[in-house]
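Predict structure. Input: ABC transporter ATP-binding protein, 291 residues.
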Amino acid sequence: MQPELRLTAVGRRYGIRGPWVLRGVDLAVAPGTLVRVEGANGTGKSTLLRLLARLDAPTEGRVTGRPRTAYVPERFPSALPFTAVGYLTHLGTVHGLSRASAARAADTWLERFGAGAYGGTPMERLSKGSSQKVAVAQALIGEPELLVLDEAWTGLDAGARDELERAVAERTAAGGAVVFVDHDPRRLAGAPDVTYAVLDGGLERCADGVRPAAGPLTLVTAQGPPGGRLPADAARIVSSAEETAPGTHRLTVRASHSDVLLRALLTAVPPWHVAGVESAAAPHPDPGTRP
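Output follows.
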């Protein structure tokens, strides 16, 4: 059975007297689970992912369990002395594949992400999008037990983004764990087994699909067909929804996601009528949701 990765009372700061980026973090990542991590910019999401990938060591606390791990950063160092195929083949052999098997796997992953034509191109000459495809392929070529994705969809074209979502589903179906951060709230919407939010240097588990408030909230009053259900794209991102009268709903959403909600309502079939948009007070997170 694949090992579970666990963070216990983990804290991380940079420098002896630097401010704590994270502190008191407890997190268990079980095999076969898909975990989403959310939070505003600068809250420590990338620091948390680097701890999970064991690229950084905690300043305090313990990290236990050693699943075979692969990591995709938002910015991939593309100035490497390899062609795309050569780089992936090299990593495949590091993961234990024979050179022939590694070369076949390299070709397969490049084709899947629409980069097969660039296999013989030196890494330093690849575009940002093509370089990101190689970055994703290098993480998947060794069939990791834990896949850590930090804004890995950034720079990918639509086809490659869809392919990465399929690869995530394949990893979890095979018993691997995947932890990801992405700025788009619709990314893998409805798929994660658990969602966490990084808030004030700690980690809040989002219970029952309700995400803790991270910043201001927006209250939207919308009218749909009587007895109609909230459009799926809208239901995935709202913090709360209340039907105050037949067909009239009061929806609370993070202000940063309000445009996504309005677009989902207005492009629904049939479209919903937006009767009002206003700021809403942020609720205090339930302390019982801390893992």
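The chain has seven helices and 13 strands.
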